[in-house]
Amino acid sequence: MHRPIARPLTVPAAVSALAVAALVTGCSGGGGASQPAADGSIAVNATDTACELSKPEAAAGAVTFNVTNKGTKVTEFYLYGTGDRIIGEVENIGPGLSRKLIIEVPDGGTYSAACKPGMVGDGIRTPFTVTGQAARSTDTNTKLAEATAGYKRYVTSQIETLVPETEEFAEAVKAGNVEKAKEEFPKARTYWERIEPVAELFGDIDPKTDGREDDERGPGETFTGYHRLEKDLWVTGLQPDSGAIADQLVADMKDLQNRVKPLELTPVQLANGAKELLDEVATTKLTGEEDRYSHTDLWDFKANVEGSQAAVAALRPVIDEKQPALGPELDKQFAAVDELLAKYRSGDGFKLYTELTPEDTRAMAKAIDALGEPVSKVAGAVSQT
Amino acid sequence: MTPELSRRTLIGLAGAGVALAGAGAAAGVAATSSSSDLGLGPVTGAVEFFGDHQAGIVTPAQDRMHFVALDVTSTDRNQLVELLRTWSSAAQRLTAGAEVTPLGALGGNPDAPPDDNGEALGLPPSQLTLTFGVGGSLFDGRFGLANHKPAQLADLPKFAGDELDPARSGGDLCIQACANDPQVAVHAIRHLVRMGFGTTAVRWSQLGFGRTSSTSTTQATMRNMFGFKDGSNNIKAEDPDALRDHVWAATGDGQAWMDGGTYLVTRRIRMHIEIWDRTSLNEQESIVGRSKGSGAAPGKAGEFDEPDLVISGNDGRPLLGDDAHIRLASAHTHGGVKILRRGYNFVDGADGSGHLDAGLFFAAFMRDPHKQFVPIQRALADSDRMMEYIEHSGSGVFAVPPGVRRGGYWGDTLFT
What we know:
The complex is a heterodimer.
Chain A: E1 22-29, E2 42-46, E3 51-53, E4 57-59, E5 61-69, E6 75-80, E7 86-93, E8 97-105, E9 107-115, E10 124-133, H1 138-174, H2 178-194, H3 196-199, H4 205-210, H5 226-236, H6 242-260, H7 267-285, H8 297-322, H9 326-342, E11 345-346, E12 349-350, H10 358-376, H11 378-383
Parallel strand pairs in A: 2-5, 4-10
Antiparallel strand pairs in A: 1-8, 2-3, 5-8, 6-7, 6-9, 9-10, 11-12
Helix pairs in contact in A: 1-2, 1-6, 1-8, 2-5, 2-8, 5-6, 7-8, 7-10, 8-9, 9-10
Chain B: H1 7-13, H2 16-19, H3 23-30, H4 35-38, E1 64-72, H5 77-95, E2 129-135, E3 173-179, H6 182-196, E4 200-208, E5 210-211, H7 240-246, E6 262-271, H8 273-276, H9 281-288, H10 325-329, E7 340-341, E8 344-350, E9 356-366, H11 373-383, E10 390-400, H12 412-415
Antiparallel strand pairs in B: 1-3, 1-4, 2-3, 2-10, 5-8, 6-9, 6-10, 7-9, 8-9
Helix pairs in contact in B: 5-6
């Protein structure tokens, strides 16, 4: 359950059709006439006071600008769309230097080109028209559809195990077998924690199953679910209603299973789910808040990271297409977290949170920060058209 | 871009002369002093990022500071160099008053986190300077730099009364942000820290809310948390001979990559202000060795009159005690040695015992900490009566490389 960062993904986010891939190639000295070049590229003559384009329009598709800085200040060149959305840009063009900028502009319409001598201000604007319409790649849409379908299969398989694992946990509670129930608690939660952002799409399930004792509740709502049973098992001893709480937990998980079946996820939801799982690690596992009675937080930590990795893996073909440098960085940082967590293995599970030193949690926080930055870039990468 | 929210639009309106990152404009801005002297509101222009020396050293001391020390968490030298390039590009933009990247807070893909969080939208450059340094621990062999460690970067000795907290000391790297608007300084550090995730992690951080030193003759000397003008005798930007002799590392000092650089010593000095406030004015002035009002030394009329260390009163007794702060810190006492001070007042919340956790974040630039800071601090630690009211709780020594040339990056003389 996430608390201070609650942002249920109830509205499917449409994949943005506006952002466009831009490609900047390396420096070349001099050049840059104000006549259209033979290759169809557009020369941009940027000075301290002017921003002249060799022609004011181009056909939809790949548009190439050759920007030459003839001024005295470092300049930038931008192509803006409606509402000043940046379609493409090239920065840090020193005086006397030229840079080539290739922008994919699939949609015809009115745009605005801008030079920014000194890198500040709104820049010197000039209108720019794109004519016609370029074909969009259907390849990306196929990959995205495969990604969401693949992740849906992952979620389904996790819930298929979550239900019987939770049943086993509930049976042990009802049988009064505290030792067995304690063993089952972190195992069952592993499947829950891997897919938690999906469960949170159904706003009523999470508070009942994963709420904490000190959460605010409406009238008639009580502390139930995994953590209520955790407290019974580790602190207060089993209560007269522990069995009923266990039965309700199983019923809630079956409810989740049924409700996930027709669910359609978007690529951006997958990506944001991957990020939220790491936010969960940072705010509830590294603090020992989540499993405050059993101290089995590292089990949940591991499960959150695995769930995040599964969502990213499903999106990987799209990530590799859109931002080729991002995938290897994700691989590297996921591996670093795995390697770090492996040090805290104990038997089939992990050390207790109470056995960790401040140095241990500091190292974990650094690893999660290092992973969180590239994971936060996935949503933007997959929604980039 | 939404015009009313655009940081850069506002700068544009402020006039090209202010917005320019060019050397001429920066020099013009740099010649003015900070808000406290003029009573005209904060100086808001930009300070040039490029130059022979880094900005933020002799730049007229801005009113606010955010300092951060970082550890390098990666062992990949290329990754570190890449970060230094990214930082330098961002620092150039931030000091010019631009957002951290061209896409900024609002220009990127709305499904992605913004490159710039936007808390400085609408704020002018505010004379932001970003000053980069490297600590001795960077030379431990992880990055193949062991042979490049300057002797000047050796650890400081332990001084009497030091209560140093390792969590507030040291660091592989440091970045000092100074600005006339605290939001601008914090914005810069926050985003540089963010860029470093996976390569660096914050080791410690310090906010300073008010400058204590002046680094230009155009600035008034401000007061520390003891209420006294601090660093009246500081090295000033207008004294090139003193800068050459006492601040800038020069050819022959040891490591050539530091030519034109300097060394930074930071000390987090907790001040027990509650006890100080129960001390009589006579006693306070006797401890410091200056008048609280004017800042003048005993028998002198003005703050900048040269102190007379042997002056006696009508009764023939010395007016300046052997244990007075200004005597022990004086250049005369240490063979002419001086340092360029750039300290800031801080209050870091409460100490849990009903007191404010207040003090002075001492930051000083010099050519060799072991020939300049160490003898002065040793004398103070051993004899200064002020020691009863303070304790040093954090410490750092950093090599501050020379200024960045166009196309270069922070520390490029070390890594190339």
